[in-house]
C-alpha cells in the first residue's frame, strides 16, 4: 500500500512556522510537544514531515540562512559599489525587527562551530554566500585577491558590529562605528 503523496506546499508552510517558532523561542528550546502544540499539529505530524528532530533543525537552519540572505542579499546586487552595498546590508541586518532572527543566527552559528559534523551545510554556506555576493558587488575589474580580502573584512566587521548591537543595544555607538568603517571602503 502506497502512502499519501507529500504535500510540498503544506510542508513549506509548516517549515516556515517552525522557523518562526524557533526565532521566537530559541534553538535550544525546540522540542516536539511544545512545538506541535504551538503550531496546532500533532508531534506525529512533525515527525512525518521532518523525520528526526536533528533533521528538522537542519532544515530550520537552512531556511533561516535563506531568509537572512534573501532579505539582505537583494541589496548587494543593486548597489554601485562595495561601501554602498555594505551599508545596505548593515541597514537590513541591524533593523530592530530583525533582532530575534539574528540572535538565533548567532546561537546557531556557535552551536554549528561546536558540532560541525551536525551542521556541515550551514557552515558551508554561512560565509560562502556572502563572500560570493560581496566579491561580485565590487565589479568585474577588481583584482580577485583584493575583492576576497575586502569581502572578508566586510563580513567579519558587519557580523561583529551586529553582535555588539545585539549584546549592548547601544545603537548610536554601534551605528557610528559602522559608518566609520563604511567610509574606509
UniProtKB/TrEMBL annotation:
Entry keyword set: DNA-binding, Transcription, Transcription regulation
InterPro entries found in the cross-reference section: Homeodomain-like_sf, HTH-type_TetR-like_transc_reg, HTH_TetR
Classification via Pfam families: TetR_N
Keyword DNA-binding: yes
Domain HTH tetR-type: 8-68
DNA-binding region ranges: 31-50
Coiled coil: none
PANTHER family: HTH-TYPE TRANSCRIPTIONAL REGULATOR BETI, HTH-TYPE TRANSCRIPTIONAL REGULATOR RUTR
Protein name from the UniProt record: TetR/AcrR family transcriptional regulator
